[in-house]
Known about the structure:
The chain has 261 residues and is an alpha+beta fold. Helix content is 36%, strand content 31%.
Amino acid sequence: MYxxxxxxxxAIKEGIRQIDLxxxxxxxxxxxxxxxxxxxxxxxxxxxIYFLETACGIYYVAGKREEELSHCSAFIVxxxxxxxxxxxxxxxxxxxxxxxxxxxxxxGSHLNEMERHAYIFSEVHSYVPASHSGYRVERTNEQVxxxxxxxxxxxYEAYWGRAARFLSKxxxxxxxxxxxxxxxxxxxxxxxxxxxxxxxxxEACRGxxxxxxxxxxxIRSCLENKRTPHWDCDVQHLTSIKLAEKLGFQRxxxxxxxxxx
Length: 261
C-alpha cells in the first residue's frame, strides 16, 4: 500500500464514491485537512483499494473486488498489531459486504463487530428551529467546553487533536439552563461540506425535548455554513434512531463496524 499525496484528494473522493456513495464524514475530514490522518491506496495512479487512518485510531476500508482486498489484508493486520502493541484504538468502518468478508476472514477472531445506520439530513425547505422558554442556545465556545459534562477538552483532543482546532473548523451548539449545559450537539467530524453530528442531553432533563432542540439548532448552523448534516448510530439505539427521524434525517445505508475490545 502507498501513502497518497494529499493533492489528489478530489479524484480520490470520486473513486471512493463509486464504491460507497455514503462513506463516513471522517474520510473527508482527513482529506480536507480538518483533522490529522493518512490515506493509503494499492496503486497511486489507478487505486482500487482505499485505507484511511485517523490520528484517533478510526479507520475506513473500501475496495472494488474481494481478491484485491485480500491483497491488502497483510497491511491491515500490521496496523492492527501496531495498535495492539501501543494499546491504541482500532475501529474499522467497512464500506460494503466485500470489506466485511475480508475483515472477518483475517481479523474476525480478534475483533468485535456491530451494525450501524447512516443518515443524511434531507429537508430542503427553509429550516427554522423551535423555541423553548426557560433555556438559551449558545454556539459552542471555550466557556461551554469548560462547563460541558460530555464534550470536554479530552473529547476534542481525541477527535480533533485539540479544542482550538474544533473551535476554528467545527460546529457546535449548547442548550443552557442558567449556567448549566443541559444538552449539546457538536460535530464529532467535519469537512468542507459535511458534518457528522454527536449529541448529548442531561439525563435529569429527559422528556423535555432538549436533545431535539439542540439538534434543530445544530442543523440550522450546519446549513448556514453550507455543510450537510450526517447522523450515525448503532442499529440497537432506538432512541437515537427515533430522534434522527424526528429531526428530518433519512437512512442512507446500514454498515458494519469492527473494533478491538
